[in-house]
Design a protein that fits this description.
alpha+beta, 5 domains, five-stranded antiparallel β-sheet, 22 helices
């Protein structure tokens, strides 16, 4: 274990030192000191670190973490973005700061773009594309995007993964894992944030994002689901030009959704756009059970007066039928101000601990709802209501589904976009038509019939399998392989009292035996004499007397006689 820790710590000593230096720059020297990593920095750095820490105290802790992540590069920016979906373990100020993290980095050379494409498809780039624009449209932490023309003359965009990004991310993730273990070891109060768990979750998520075939399949799924809505554009995937590190899709022209000035200059009705975006999002939740999990402005474009284009399906959330129904109750309950419904639904959505104080949870949650319902629309946020619930659930050790955490982040992003496009865009109102459809469908004839059929099938399965299961039990009983384990609970005091009583009874029997035996010796004589009486008889009476007095003392002390 010691060797493993050393290996993880010094696998990339240069990178570890870079991380420490940047953390010190942003005022985190006290933390570096607490986790015993000051041995990796020079004495001048230690002196400077203490000075900087004092100067940086004026800036909030959350802001300093965000600034440090931005400077630490792509892996840490992605890590911060993932953390923005964890209101269950992080305070609100951290969530809001991490939502500000922009995944924009300097582009890598075009020569590397060509190398990655040729390595992926094992062909010269000229056999794949007529033309690729050297200047990228966008450059992010994992990949950058170039406009291109296929051999068949179709205009496309190519998303190309950064060279060696897998190695960089693997190194950073292993370093983060090492740092997380140090934090747990030397800063015990950090356990409530589960730093090791956060890093493990990040590692799993980032690996999925780096497989562009997965993103391509999600893009196709969304395109198929939304094909009946002419207002929505999803790019077509060119599978023959797509691999794990290269994604080729239809090129879509449009204006970034947060460029309000340009939208208005183009005669776009921003209020309508806001309604379309919100409506499409809730349709994804309540009709398809899968939603775009990264709704920042760089992934949504306005492609016409009433046309919206969604891109980058690297992060998606999945919702099962049960959660769809629960969310429908939540959104309707928020409109109707149904405290009891909201409380019951939220308890249903989580995994409750055995020792939960349910009445206390209900009181606290309903107090929170009361404060929310008393505010005007402009001062309320559905995302904040969900976030506050998730935090409350965390305090009561209620585990929430991962999809709900991602959904909360998306609703916060959606509300921000809605208010930017038009102050009156109400996310809660937009949710109602879809939520009420789910509720109506639940009690409709088709669903009732389906539930009845499912119930009959369950009984049918039970009746069919019951004889064979009983046969197995009987076989085990006949072959002496059938065991029943009894677990006694709450009987510890009774067992202790029985032990004490049996010990006293045994003690009493021994005393009685000594008295009877000594009496017989005294009656029949024999053996050595003491003062004219048999020595063994005197000794027996003496021992019996001492033991009898001790037994009487124990009984009197217990008070039970």
């Amino acid at each position: 274990m010691t060797f493993l820790r050393i290996h993880l710590a010094y696998k990339n000593i240069q990178r570890l030192r870079q991380i420490i230096t940047i953390l010190i720059k942003h005022g985190f020297y006290p933390i570096i000191e607490r986790i015993h990593l000051t041995k990796l920095i020079s004495i001048p750095q230690k002196i400077l670190g203490k000075k900087v820490s004092v100067e940086q105290e004026a800036i909030s802790f959350a802001v300093r973490v965000r600034l440090a992540f931005e400077e630490l590069g792509p892996t840490f920016i992605k890590f911060g973005q993932i953390l923005s979906t964890r209101p269950d373990i992080l305070p609100e100020e951290f969530i809001r700061e991490f939502l500000k993290l922009q995944d924009e980095v300097p582009p890598f050379p075009f020569s590397d773009v060509v190398k990655v494409i040729e390595h992926e498809f094992k062909k010269p780039v000229k056999e794949l594309f007529q033309e690729i624009e050297e200047k990228p449209v966008a450059a992010a932490s994992i990949a950058q995007v170039h406009r291109a023309v296929t051999i068949n003359g179709e205009r496309v965009v190519i998303k190309v993964q950064r060279p060696d990004i897998e190695t960089i991310i693997d190194t950073d993730v292993s370093t983060l894992q090492y740092l997380a273990r140090l934090v747990i070891k030397y800063i015990p109060e950090s356990k409530i944030y589960d730093p090791v768990g956060m890093v493990e979750e990040f590692g799993a998520t980032i690996k999925k994002e780096m497989d562009f075939t997965l993103e391509a399949s999600y893009t196709e799924r969304f395109k198929k689901s939304l094909s009946d809505d002419q207002r929505i554009l999803i790019p077509t995937i060119y599978w023959n030009l797509t691999g794990k590190k290269v994604l080729t899709m239809e090129g879509i022209d449009g204006i970034k959704i947060d460029n309000i000035e340009k939208l208005k200059q183009s005669g776009i009705d921003t209020e309508k756009i806001g309604h379309i975006v919100a409506e499409t999002f809730f349709r994804q939740i309540f009709e398809f059970g899968i939603f775009h999990g990264d709704l920042h402005s760089g992934n949504i474009f306005v492609a016409g007066p009433e046309k919206i284009a969604f891109v980058d399906f690297g992060i998606v959330g999945k919702i099962d039928k049960e959660m769809q129904e629960n969310l429908a109750d939540v959104f309707v309950g928020l409109v109707t101000e149904d405290y009891e419904l909201l409380t019951q639904v939220y308890l249903k959505m989580g995994i409750l601990p055995e020792d939960i104080d349910e009445p206390a949870f209900k009181r606290e949650y309903q107090d929170m709802l009361f404060a929310y319902f008393g505010k005007p629309f402009k001062m309320t946020s559905v995302g904040e209501v969900l976030m506050n619930y998730i935090r409350l659930a965390s305090r009561y050790n209620i585990k929430m589904p991962r999809a709900l955490l991602l959904l909360d982040k998306c609703i916060l992003e959606l509300e921000g976009l809605g208010r930017l496009l038009h102050p009156e865009v109400n996310v809660l109102v937009e949710s109602q038509q879809f939520a009420r459809k789910i509720i109506a469908k639940r009690f409709g004839p088709a669903q009732v019939a389906k539930d009845a059929i499912d119930t009959v099938r369950e009984y049918q399965t039970f009746v069919r399998t019951f004889p064979s299961q009983m046969s197995q039990i009987l076989k085990k009983m006949m072959s002496d392989k059938f065991t029943i384990d009894f677990v006694h609970k709450g009987l510890e005091d009774l067992m202790g009292e029985m032990d004490r009583s049996s010990n006293r009874l045994t003690f009493g029997v021994i005393v009685a035996a000594l008295i009877i035996g000594s009496s017989l010796v005294m009656a029949f004589g024999g053996g050595p004499k003491l003062f004219g009486f048999p020595f063994l008889g005197i000794a027996g009476f003496l021992i019996a007397g001492i033991l009898g007095l001790w037994l009487a003392f124990l009984i009197l002390r217990s008070g039970k006689f």
